[in-house]
Amino acid sequence: MKSFRTLLAGLALLLSIPAAQAACEDWWAGFDTACSKVSQIWNQGNNGLLVSGYAYHARWQYTPEKLAELNEFAYGGGFEKHITHENGNEESLFFFVFADSHEDPQFNLGYMWMPYWKVAGDFQLGAGLSGGLVSRTDIFNGIPFPVILPMVSAKFSPITLYTTYIPSLGGVNNGSVIYTYGRIEF
């Protein structure tokens, strides 16, 4: 429950940006740029509904007994604000919750940068990075921890499919997960 409150506080801070009309130029050097970016995405961005999907656990990383215990239907959802630049690249802020491998809630709050390449018509493919805070009950007792993950996407507006790879933390029965979820723009 502590992790939920911590991430909720982060979300409240994120939501307060437009109300406070953040004076980013008053922040410490370096943080003013990040503040301006967050403010721009939040105030000028489009809305997206995030729909959680599937978590494939690499079969070579887990014992058969452990695989039998794991949840791969990562149901859940969330909200995203994203801005599309003139070159087609996107930046977004997101918050979502889904059922992790043990069917416990996993909270995610972060930023994503996604360059896109047009493939055919309105169909685009992207490859970028995502960073933020994650809270899971089985890691650090639910205390939020930072992550940076590679991302790929397939976009045919208003729908985007995202996929990331969550590496192993060493040993067996953890990590090596391919996680897929979607966004519906509204």
UniProtKB/TrEMBL annotation:
Chief location: membrane
Signal peptide segment: 1-22
InterPro entries: LipidA_acyl_PagP, OMP/PagP_B-barrel
Record keywords: Acyltransferase, Cell outer membrane, Membrane, Signal, Transferase
Any one cellular-component term (Gene Ontology): cell outer membrane
Compartments, record wording: Cell outer membrane
Any single Pfam family the record assigns to this protein: PagP
Molecular function via GO: acyltransferase activity
Family, per entry: Belongs to the lipid A palmitoyltransferase family.
The name this protein goes by in its record: Phospholipid:lipid A palmitoyltransferase
Record organism: Chitinilyticum piscinae
